[in-house]
Automatic annotation (TrEMBL):
InterPro entries referenced in this protein's UniProt entry, alphabetically: 4-hydroxybenzoyl-CoA_TE, HotDog_dom_sf, Tol-Pal_acyl-CoA_thioesterase, YbgC/YbaW
Keyword Hydrolase on entry: yes
UniProt name for this protein: Tol-pal system-associated acyl-CoA thioesterase
Keywords per UniProt: Hydrolase
Homology family: Belongs to the 4-hydroxybenzoyl-CoA thioesterase family.
CDD domains: 4HBT
UniProt source species: Alcanivorax dieselolei (strain DSM 16502 / CGMCC 1.3690 / MCCC 1A00001 / B-5) (Alloalcanivorax dieselolei)
Pfam short name (any one): 4HBT_2
GO molecular function, one term: fatty acyl-CoA hydrolase activity
Taxonomy of the source species: Bacteria, Pseudomonadati, Pseudomonadota, Gammaproteobacteria, Oceanospirillales
Length: 133
């Protein structure tokens, strides 16, 4: 992912909240790699929302930097996902976060269990603590 001028603040570094946008894109691509897309899930009355996040900034990114953004699943619940995410410039860690995602009904924004096929896909990809069964 490339840093554009629209991503930076007046000091020429990436505005802090934009790291969360980069991480959102990485989670969207992770979901896509499992064969799912947000709009398809929304049509089936499922939606993902950010429940909470803890972010640590280590070093700034600047305009035209090429960044790598990762999204790894750390915990899988029936209606929640905990992602560990990093933003790097080459080998240098710039920002890291733990982001908890909740699955909710698209029509009422109430907690809703992940669709069974998607839960199984996440479970198959899972690389952290044991999934809640």
């Amino acid at each position: 992912m490339r840093v554009y001028i629209e991503d930076t603040d007046a000091g020429g570094i990436v505005y802090y909240v934009n790291y969360l946008k980069f991480m959102e894109r990485a989670r969207t691509e992770y979901l896509r790699s499992l064969g799912y897309q947000h709009y398809g899930l929304s049509e089936e009355n499922y939606q993902f929302v950010v429940h909470s996040c803890q972010v640590r900034y280590h070093s700034p990114a600047r305009i035209d930097d090429a960044l790598g953004v990762s999204a790894g699943l750390r915990h899988l619940g029936k209606a929640t996902l905990l992602f560990a995410q990093q933003v790097r410039r080459g080998d240098q860690l710039l920002c890291e976060a733990e982001i908890k995602i909740a699955c909710v009904s698209a029509d009422g924004i109430r907690p809703k269990a992940l669709p069974a096929p998607l839960y199984q896909r996440f479970k198959a990809e899972y690389r952290g603590e044991r999934a809640n069964d």
